[in-house]
């Protein structure tokens, strides 16, 4: 498997993100190169799992790897249920908050060597994390190598049909943005098409509280 380079870790350790996580609230935006700002729901990330999150947790099987776990609401919920789970994130503030909430977390990128590669039962890409690295095809290839045979990828997509890659920065609305990094956004149809071309089979698709999710299983070669 060819693994592309990880996005710069400093993109997610920049002050706006760390400050927002420590405070448990925004404002925090994904600032695009074209000037558009996409709001990031820090308050929801820092709260407990909502009904949409619980619908995803209900699909988890085996050990769960939460890729880009943020403040760790999913990992902590799994830990409380005695379900083995590990969160990974490139932001020290996210890892610290996950551990403080009772979840296990590792300061790492998905593109680095990780524990139990090829043995995870489920992988999570929540809260827009399909965008990690700006190359969803490369990310899907990497996740396929992390999962055990028959394992599931549970991914949150954009609620509307979109398929775009762009450069972004983190912005707290103060006019001072962090360093640039590559990102992507996919809607449900775009993810299904990309997944099928990459050897994945869609297992389920659902929407809860205006949030959209897709479950994928990688086909054996």
Task: Please give a structural write-up.
- This protein is an alpha/beta fold and 221 residues long.
- Helices cover 29% and strands 31% of the residues.
- It contains eight helices and eleven strands.
- It has helices spanning 10-13, 15-23, 42-46, 51-57, 73-80, 92-100, 136-146, 188-197; strands at residues 29-32, 37-39, 64-67, 85-89, 105-107, 120-125, 147-157, 163-171, 181-186, 200-208, 211-218.
- It has a seven-stranded mixed β-sheet, sandwiched between helices.
- Helix 2 runs parallel beside helix 6 (92-100).
- The longest helix has 11 residues, at 136-146.
- It is globular, with a radius of gyration of 16 Å.
- The model is unreliable at 1-14 (pLDDT under 50).
Major sheet description: 7 strands, mixed
Count of runs of 4 or more consecutive helical residues: 8
Q: How big a fraction of the residues is strand?
A: 25-35%
- Radius of gyration (CA) equals 16 Å
Rounded to the nearest angstrom, the distance between the terminal CA atoms is 13 Å
Contiguous low-pLDDT stretches (5 residues minimum) are 1-14
Question: Which structural category do the helix and sheet elements fall into?
Answer: alpha/beta
Helix content: 25-40%
Mean pLDDT: 92
Shape: globular
* Adjacency order of strands in the biggest sheet: 5-4-3-6-7-11-10
